[in-house]
Each structure stands twice: as structure tokens, then as C-alpha cells.
Amino acid sequence: MQLKRITLSINGKQQNIEVQAEMPLLWAIRDIVGLTGTKFGCGVSECGACSVLIDGRLTKSCGVPVSSCIKKEIFTIEGSSDNLEFLRQAWNDINVPQCGYCQSGQLIAATSLLNKVNNPTDKDIDEAMSGNICRCGTYIRIKKAIHKAVALKNKGNE
User: Residue 13 contacts by C-beta under 8 Å, 6 or more apart in sequence?
Assistant: First the structure.
């Protein structure tokens, strides 16, 4: 179990860490860097609780070795972008979370969607969010919040 010193770029900040090269990115983010907003859900890249953006691509961090993320930009729920801020406001306005556990992954998936599609349809939202499981069933509120975030964004661009 040899440790390797690597530098990760997380939310625009360089993080110098010492880890095993094959450690899942999730554990480096949570346990080494201390950003605990990204959650452990299933450990097999199925539920979406651990979702982050790597170079803008939606990725389930529990299935990615930390060594594959060198020289890439990692964006977590602790980061900030225009789309994420509109989504946070809409999530709050609609009162989306119930237990809240999956919401960081849901917000990152929604951010990924809005980064690609300015005015998503219900079908776009369903497809983009299909990799994120909510045991409480807040899917209808999530969809409403994404539409509201688009309206807030468009209002700000008037």
C-alpha cells in the first residue's frame, strides 16, 4: 500500500494530498480533503449520491481512481457556478429535499444538465437525472426546481 503524492484541482483550488493511487476519488474528496458534501451511497456507481463534475462531465466519484483525476478539474457541491447558484435558490424555494441525503448528487446532475442545455424539456430532465436515486421520491419537486432555476437564469439575463 504505497502512498503517492498528487495534486488535484477541486473547485478551482489545488489540493496536495498523499493517497493510494487507486483510492476512489470520493474518499479523497471526503476523507483527505474534507469536502463532505459529496455523499457515499452505494459504492458501485449506481445511485448518484457521489456525483461530481470532472472536466465538466458528470461522474460518479465512488468508481473513479484518484490517480485518473490528475490534471483535471473536479467540481463538487461545495463549488460555485451560475447554474449551481440558480439551482440552489430554486431547490430552496421549492423545498425540494425530504431527507436530503441524495440532494448534493441531484444538484450536481442538474448543474451538468444546465451546463449543456439552456432550456431543458421534461424529457431532457428525466434523461439527465435518471442516474440519481432519491429514496424519498422527490422527483417531481426536483423537476419543478430545475424549471424554476431556468426561469431564474432567464430572468437574470433580461
Answer: none
